[in-house]
Amino acid sequence: MGSVFDHLFTWFHQVFILQFNGWVLLGFVAQFFFGMRFVVQWLASERAKRSVVPVAFWFFSLGGGGLLLIYAIQRRDPVFIAGQALGLFIYFRNLWLIANERKAAAMTKVD
């Protein structure tokens, strides 16, 4: 049984300690931002007692997705790059739609 724990300890040490550098730190920061979007969405939904996607969700998505794309490019991972690049398009598009909706609502109030 000790051998299993030794192998597990060695694996964790190689993955989380020996590989740690500025890029890995960036990856963890990016994951934090990306994860925060779910916290923001969950709290907004709990307050409203219905499913809500606040604007902050899209900004955290954009920030986390952008940093993850940089990380994926540095890692040269084509699957990760393609996924994050597509996601950024969707996040920008949602923010664009929200801005247009707010602009139209503001113009309606002026009339």
Task: Describe this protein with a few key phrases.
single chain; 111 residues; mainly alpha; 88% helix; elongated; lipid-A-disaccharide synthase activity; membrane
Structure in a nutshell:
The chain has one domain (21-110).
Could you characterize what this model shows?
With 111 residues, the chain is mainly alpha-helical. It has four helices and no strands. The mean pLDDT is 91. GO terms for molecular function: lipid-A-disaccharide synthase activity. InterPro entries: Lipid_A_biosynth_N, UCP028440_lipidA_biosyn.
Q: Give Rg in angstroms.
A: 20 Å
* Run of helices and strands: HHHH
Q: Percent of residues in beta strands?
A: under 5%
Number of helices: 4
Write the layout of secondary structure elements.
Blueprint (H helix, E strand, L loop, with lengths): L1 H17 L3 H27 L6 H21 L2 H33 L1
Helix pairs in contact: 2-3, 3-4
